[in-house]
Amino acid sequence: MATNTEFTPGEMMTIAASRALSNDDVCFVGIGAPSAACNVARLTHAPDITLIYESGTIGTAPEVLPLSIGDGELCETALTTVSVPEMFRYWLQGGRISVGFLGAAQLDRFGNINTTVIGDYHKPKVRLPGGGGAPEIATSCGQVFITMKQATRGMVDKIDFYTSFGHGDGGDHRRRLGIATKGPTLLITDLAIWKPDPETKEFTVVSLHPGVTREHVQDTCGWKVRFSDQLEETPPPSELELSTLRELQARTERAHGGRKGS
Amino acid sequence: MAKFQSLHDAVRDNLRDGDTAAFEGFTHLIPHAAAHEAIRQGRRDLTLIRMTPDIIYDQMIGMGLVRKVVFSYAGNPGVGLLRRMRDAIENGWPRSIETVEHSHAAMANAYEAGAAGLPCAVFRGYRGAGLKDVNPEIRSVSCPFTGEELAAVPAHRPDVAFIHAQKASRRGDVLIEGIIGVQKEAVLASRRAVVTVEEIVEDFDDLHPNLCVLPHWTVTSIAHVPGGAHPSYTHGYYDRDNAAYLEWDKVSADRDLFMQWMKANVLEAGPEAFAERVKGL
User: Fold this and answer.
1) Of A90, B37, B127, B162, which one is least surrounded by beta carbons within 10 A?
2) Does some domain include residue A210?
3) Which CATH number goes with the domain that contains A248?
4) β-pairing, B80-81 with B98-101?
């Protein structure tokens, strides 16, 4: 497979995330970076993947990336579109979704996510949009993948608010709360691939993207980073992966008049 | 029984000061024209329910109509944050507002419970989530059969729902197509329902039997407002005006600019302006 040495960290992140999805997955797609990754997977190695957006579209195959979770494109290319109560009751709560794919404003080492407030809830420094579907996506999907760009502001020692529960304080915290699903099993950033330690559930770097150093990963992360003993290097994007992502983004920009879409 | 009215009269007759109202639409079919009419009529002390408060709630909050918002995701879809809502929460401008925050699953279940005539909704949710520590309306019940602990929230029972739809028949039946969101549940959960439509057709005789239709006797008032969802979209009629959502990010960033925009585009405009706004989309 031909590889390409000219790619951005953002492209590497999206492509590494797309590789984690398989043809058999039924994936609940969050808006932003997850949406690009899911559609690259669909357009490359996982043509039969089922993509579901919380607006009710099941089996959607958008030609361009949606700007919002409820763009007409999602409905027009879907197998079927159901109501939002049906989406959350039958499909998400009913256990039909194998992977939930989320982004995060703030993330901690145990995969807990905050998209609600920065600062105190009742007197916030910044009021963020809130959880939307995420609190139940995090607990009802078979497993959860998280993707975000690394920054000390986002990857923090302690999140300000538990919008959606990852592994809590680590260990068997999910089980103790009666949550039967696996929770976060994968974190893909622009620098590395992380997996939870089997015992402590703390995210551990298992693969560095090409050209990335351990120092760079640590400098952009607010907690003391653990690296796997068998640290690998992420294979660079193939020509096919890169051209698929770039063509998808170019189509999206043309369709949305200069907007990148997500 | 659905009454055909001007939007002015429909809002005047169905929305009162202090009401709990739901202007619903999940990215699609957002009832912008109806919200603008509420702003022109200067309603006060409203409690607004909505899964995804976006530009219209930002506008209503910024114009001081709102006392309380019940919601699950407050953002400008695809763009960012709601700046007027943030100004009200963070700085109390133009007045402070109370917020009751839920997840999407809770809100959807609460509408469904309201439509089903139940006092509360029961679902598997909020496990490990921080919202249950800050929202006293999030409680739990034990399943009487298995003992499983489940989340419970009160049903939504708005005084009035406002939605936008593709078509009404002359009899007043309403057709909603595409991403249908929670509109059917919101209408059936509410005491009164006002629907703006793109088009009024003779009858629904040729439709597929399983479409999302609200019978005329579930709807209080219908107003014919072509383009009434702009800058949101109406599936089959016009596309989303993405540029307008981007523009709103700039307009809403500044209090004076916001007031100027509202004066020119809402206070001194009428529902007939919407047809013009969707031309070419």
Assistant:
1) A90
2) yes
3) 3.40.1080.10
4) unpaired
C-alpha dihedral over A191, A195, A201, A202, to 10 degrees?
Answer: -20
Instruction: Assess whether A54 carries a catalytic annotation.
Output: yes
A60: region left, alpha or beta (phi > 0 left; psi from -120 to 50 alpha): beta
Measure CB to CB from residue B103 to each of A85, A126, A135 and give the nearest one: A135
Per-residue pLDDT reduced to its tens digit, A187-245: 999 999 999 999 999 999 999 999 999 999 999 999 999 999 999 999 999 999 999 99
- Give dist(CA A208, CA A195) in Å, integer: 12
| Residue A164: inside a domain | yes
Cβ-in-10-Å burial (0-12, 13-18, 19+) of B143 comes to exposed
Domain with A101, as residue range(s), is 9-255
Bridge pairing between strands B174-176 and B212-214: antiparallel
The pTM score is: 0.96
DSSP A163: S
- Evaluate whether B44 touches B21 at the Cβ level (below 8 Å): no
Between helices A33-43 and A239-255, what is the axis angle to 10°? 120
- Residue B48 sits at φ, ψ, to 5 deg, of -105, 130
pLDDT in tens, A101-116: 999 989 999 999 999 9
B93/A88 Cα distance (integer angstroms)? 35
Neighbours of B136 (CB within 10 A): 8
User: What counts of helices (H) and strands (E) characterise chain A?
Assistant: 8, 14
Query: What's the distance, CA B211 to chain centroid?
Result: 21
Q: Which residue of A has its CA nearest to B183?
A: A83
Structurally, chain A folds into a number of domains equal to 1
ipTM for the predicted complex = 0.96
Chain B interface, mutation test: which of A91, A136, A181, most B Cβ atoms within 10 Å? A136
Instruction: Report yes or no: B14 at the A interface, CB cutoff 8 Å.
Output: no
Instruction: Identify the CA nearest to B54 among candidates B77, B84, B88, B28.
Output: B77
CB pairs under 8 A between A and B: 176
Q: Is residue A249 part of a domain?
A: yes
Helix B242-251 and helix B55-62: axis angle, to 10°? 30
Phi then psi for residue B23, to 5 deg, are -100, 95
Domains in chain B and their CATH numbers?
3-102+157-272 (3.40.1080.10), 116-154 (no CATH)
- Residue A54 belongs to a domain: yes
Contacts of A165 in chain B (CB under 8 A): 127-129
- Residues from chain A that touch B136, judged by Cβ atoms under 8 A, are none
- Write out residues 145-184 of A within 8 Å (CB-CB) of B: 161-165, 168, 173-174, 177-179
Q: Can you say whether residue A178 is alpha, beta or left, with left for phi > 0 and alpha for psi between -120 and 50 degrees?
A: left
